[in-house]
Design goal:
Blueprint: H1 2-23, H2 31-42, H3 47-57, H4 59-83, H5 86-92, E1 93-101, E2 104-110, H6 111-119, E3 123-138, E4 141-154, E5 160-173, E6 176-187
Helix pairs in contact: 2-4, 3-4, 4-5
């Protein structure tokens, strides 16, 4: 009898260990998974709850929600481009995306060029940050003025720090914010 109880306890303990292992998240989760969860966390409010809070708190609540959404989108984009995550970059960058550098048309990067550079490792960063974020807009479009910092490596060269003042134009398609364009306003 004692043998059966001991065996049951051992099997029960093993089942608990296996259940614990299978329910944990993989420690090597990608930045896009974290970005998706951050984006999901900022967009869980239902339209009914949003209109109720906006009515109760005034226009400030709508602006606050927009700023929160765009902050999450900026961070998701930053993490994707710096981390080489072309899957997330493809989701968060609009099909007609362009990025205009400080020298104008000569420094314009299209979505296809950006995806190629990131995917082939020709453009990589070991750190990045967004600061001084200011968001304007309503409905399905927004503009964000911000300072973008990253330690970027181009073409296999050692990374160097860059700080850029940029204006990002965002559009909301199918309930998801996408970066339509980025324009550099000059170095910081």
């Amino acid at each position: 009898m004692h043998g059966r109880i001991a065996a049951a306890l051992v099997w029960g303990g093993m089942a608990a260990v296996l259940a614990g292992c299978s329910s944990g998240k993989d420690a090597a989760a990608t930045d896009s998974a974290r970005a998706d969860s951050a984006t999901a966390a900022t967009s869980t409010m239902t339209p009914a709850a949003d209109s109720t809070s906006a009515a109760g708190a005034g226009a400030g609540a709508g602006a606050s929600a927009l700023t929160s959404d765009i902050t999450a989108a900026e961070n998701a984009w930053r993490i994707a481009v710096a981390g080489g995550d072309t899957v997330e970059l493809g989701r968060i960058t609009a099909p007609g995306f362009t990025m205009v550098g400080g020298t104008g048309a000569a420094s314009t990067v299209t979505r296809a060029n950006l995806m190629k550079q990131v995917g082939q490792g020709m453009l990589a960063a070991d750190s990045s940050a967004v600061s001084d974020l200011s968001v304007k807009g309503s409905g399905d479009s927004a503009t964000a003025d911000l300072t973008f910092f990253w330690r970027v490596s181009r073409g296999g060269k050692p990374p160097k720090p860059e700080t850029l003042k940029v204006t990002d134009s965002w559009v909301k398609r199918d309930g998801r914010w996408q970066l339509a364009s980025r324009k550099e306003r000059g170095g910081a």
